[in-house]
Write a structure and sequence with these properties.
The chain is α+β, with helices and mostly antiparallel strands. Helix content is about 45%, strand content about 20%. The strands form 5 sheets. It has a 6-stranded mixed beta sheet with strand order 3-2-1-4-6-5, with helices on both faces. The chain has a 5-stranded antiparallel beta sheet with strand order 7-8-11-10-9. Strands 12-16-19-20-21 form a 5-stranded antiparallel beta sheet, with no helix packed on it. Strand 9 and strand 10 form a beta hairpin. The longest helix has 30 residues. The protein is globular, with a radius of gyration of 26 Å.
Length: about 475
């Protein structure tokens, strides 16, 4: 990584912002990438302030990183702001992983320092780009995910995105820049580390230019995404009417535009859509579904050619929603809630073997058991909505719950308070009726979602 090459990149990509004299806040961890970036910005006359967040996760090692950054900035007269955050505690309080929580804390800290008009510089490299693309590919993604890390996003710039980690470390050695090595970077328990330590070296054996090729692919996909998003925006505007969208122009659009326009419409209404939800939304627009449950107590309906988002009925305020981790450590408590009458319940994920071994212990407390991996999206507990249907195991057709409850002569109060468990596709269990056939456990079931009456001590584990 040459200083001339980096300076050319900086001038080409960010010259207008820098020429305007915008304040630059550089996120500096103490690692080679961020130390090289800070040195480069300082050496090339950029008005930069270093920002270091001590995550307090590695004890003396974290404190050593902070001291390294302090000494480096002090020797060069670079303004520095340090902050300490107990990320382990915050992650537990927010129900997040430590990595995700640390990212939230860092960017909130950087944004506070940069203000409305400043820039935030982060030290992502070409190596990070390849690792991110592989990570998203492994977990499941589309073309947008494969476009990787963008060179800029809002007021965030990434000056090193066109340099490999090897080039950055060469720069540090040449300029005699000290840097710290995070011991957790070689811990194989973290998925990204396994990609960095195993997958990337294997790809480089196939082609030493793998990182550069990944960078070019990311740029091409980002360019395509920009065009498609513009076309999808035009489609969305053409379909908008007061209170919703005309389904016909959406239905006639190319799938690449339909999914983007639908995602934008949902986002405008406070709903983040994953690929499963978008697939079901397309089915709804094509008339294959009549209604689709959404996160946040909302639902998407198609009626007389108009697509609209509705809120749960005001006379039915009972509502709970739980995120189901894709691969939870088991057994794990997903969450707790109380039925309308006040009866407490706990939602757990357990292995099928654990369930079979221990089910006699809590058979009187078991409300339902479902195949965990057949639940799509978040799981909602709510009251019945118009059009709710459910097909019992062994049946060939679903039935309207309203009709089922009417035929059973269920009292009006019981019908009103009956609890429905539903995922993105609709009910998976209905109180007084049973569980859906599509979520019934079978011989191939690996994980079970079980709902128990909470009659045990606070910290009892069902297995």
């Amino acid at each position: 990584m040459s200083n001339r090459r980096l300076r050319g990149t900086l001038e080409e990509k960010f010259r207008l912002d820098l020429a305007a004299g915008k304040k630059v806040v550089a996120g500096v961890s103490g690692g080679a990438d961020s130390m090289a970036m800070l040195h480069f910005l300082w050496k090339n006359g950029v008005s930069v302030t270093a920002a270091h967040l001590n995550h307090c996760l590695r004890g003396a090692e974290s404190d050593g990183d902070e001291e390294l950054v302090r000494r480096f900035c002090r020797e060069r007269g670079i303004p520095l702001v340090c902050k300490r955050a107990d990320v382990a505690r915050l992650a537990k309080e927010r129900g997040l992983g430590e990595e995700a929580c640390g990212r939230e804390e860092r960017y909130a800290f950087f944004a506070e320092l940069a203000g409305e008009d400043g820039l935030i510089a982060t030290a992502h490299t070409l190596s990070d780009q390849l690792e991110t693309m592989l990570f998203r590919l492994a977990r499941g993604t589309g073309p947008d995910g494969l476009s990787g890390i963008s060179e800029s996003r809002g007021n965030i710039i990434r000056p090193l995105l066109f340099c490999s980690r090897e080039e950055v470390e060469d720069y540090c050695r040449r300029e005699k820049i000290p840097f710290a090595e995070d011991s957790t970077n070689r811990d194989p328990r973290y998925a990204r580390n396994r990609i960095r330590l195993e997958a990337v070296p294997a790809l480089k054996k196939v082609n030493p230019g793998a990182e550069a090729h990944a960078g070019r692919l990311a740029m091409a996909l980002a360019r395509d995404r920009e065009y498609l998003e513009g076309e999808a925006s035009r489609l969305l505007q053409s379909a908008k009417i007061p209170g919703g969208l005309l389904a016909e122009p959406m239905k006639e659009a190319h799938p690449a535009l339909l999914s983007r326009a639908l995602a934008a419409y949902l986002a405008e209404n406070g709903v983040h859509a994953d690929s499963f939800l978008l697939e079901d939304g397309e089915r709804l627009i094509k008339g294959e579904l009549s209604r689709l449950n959404l996160p946040g107590g909302k639902w998407l309906s198609l009626c007389r050619g108009i697509l609209s988002i509705q809120q749960n009925l005001p006379e039915s305020p009972f509502f709970w929603e739980f995120f189901l981790p894709p691969k939870p450590d088991m057994p794990v408590l997903i969450g707790e809630f109380a039925f309308p009458g006040g009866e407490p319940a706990a939602l757990w994920c357990v292995t099928a073997a654990e369930f079979e071994k221990n089910k006699k212990i809590y058979k009187n407390d078991l409300i339902f058991s479902l195949d965990y991996d057949t639940i799509i999206g978040n799981l909602q507990f709510r009251r019945r909505l118009p059009g709710d249907r459910l097909c019992l195991p062994g049946r060939t057709a679903s039935r309207l719950l309203k009709k089922v409850y009417s035929e059973a002569a269920l009292p009006a109060e019981a019908r009103r308070d009956a609890v429905i468990a539903a995922d993105s596709l609709g009910p998976v269990w209905a109180e007084y009726y049973g569980s859906s056939s599509r979520n019934t456990a079978c011989a191939a079931t690996a994980r079970l979602l079980i709902l128990l009456r909470k009659t045990r001590k606070e910290n009892d584990n069902p297995c």
